UniProtKB/TrEMBL annotation:
<dbReference type="GO" id="GO:0016301">
    <property type="term" value="F:kinase activity"/>
</dbReference>
<protein>
    <submittedName>
        <fullName>HprK-related kinase B</fullName>
    </submittedName>
</protein>
<keyword id="KW-0808">Transferase</keyword>
<dbReference type="InterPro" id="IPR027597">
    <property type="entry name" value="HprK-rel_B"/>
</dbReference>
<keyword id="KW-0418">Kinase</keyword>
<dbReference type="InterPro" id="IPR027417">
    <property type="entry name" value="P-loop_NTPase"/>
</dbReference>
Amino acid sequence: MTLVKTVLDGLDFTTADAATPFHIAIGPVGVTVLCAGGLRDELMAYFAEALVDTLAPELAHQTVHLLPDQGLNWEPDWTQWAREGGKTGRKDAVFDLEGARLVLKVRSGVTFLQSPDHAIAFGPLQDNVSTVINFINTQVLNICQRDGWQLCHAAAVTGLGRGLAIAGLSGGGKSTSILRMMDIEGMRFVSNDRVLVTAGAEPRALGIPKHPRINPGTILGNPRLRDMIAPARRAELEAMPVADLWALEEKHDLFIGEVYGPDRVQYAAPLTDFWVLNWSHEADTTVAVTEVDLSARPALLSAIMKSPGPFYQHPDGRFEPNGASPDPAPYLDALQDVRVCEVSGRIDFDALAGIGQQLFAGSL
């Protein structure tokens, strides 16, 4: 008996298989989710913009089983997954099986079985809905990456025939910047933190159904969002030094439809422009958006590239190795026909929003 079969035999799929499935479609990918009870209702509400009644037969497909409150009946010899630079603490652990991988979320105890044939989450799922959402979205990322798309740590919007992705180091303001672009008439939201890109006659971008989780600095810097924070807490935050407010991690969920109205989400989009934020509060020059040769600016490219992580299985069956770094060459190929610009100078979201208006008006 293989270890994969041992895992499967120890899980009860009866309730999930008896539930009415729901389906999401993102670009070339369809995902079917089998889950029962309140968790199913919560997930369907979250994925509302991506829900479809049936999946077109031409879509690449993965089925996800969600099994709350179940667990392994044996303890694997887990290996800690190395985190990306600048991040500390234990987050993921892995245990490789024959053609599959177990992934454990160390803090929550949620466990996953991942392979092309199996996408199963089990454990305290109801208490970790965000983790479940990420796992469902990971199936979209995995399928697209196996088909040659490159994963970017970026946010994106589209409209008026253009598509703009914005990357930057964590806390650099990509969410704030992209939400300011959403105030431009005709804009639609593509993604907040993960963007897939692919080369071709017309380069394309693909987002995933993940609503922005934003910090107070983003909220206070946008009049449309200020009511997301109660007045008393808002006053406390506004009294903080700018640098402290900028660094504060206090996440709030922003649902695009509730703030910007219906039909403001579009996951598949053209990609014409890519901005990399390389600005600071301490700079003494005004904001500048300058076209760059990405092949000559490896530091900017590093802000764009994103490791596929422990869930990714390559087309040849290999899982992503622990500690591996992305290969720059496919990114340079995917972005060769995209205008890439560096955003430098002093952080000024009002000024950047004005430059964005010029871009989408066709005057930049």
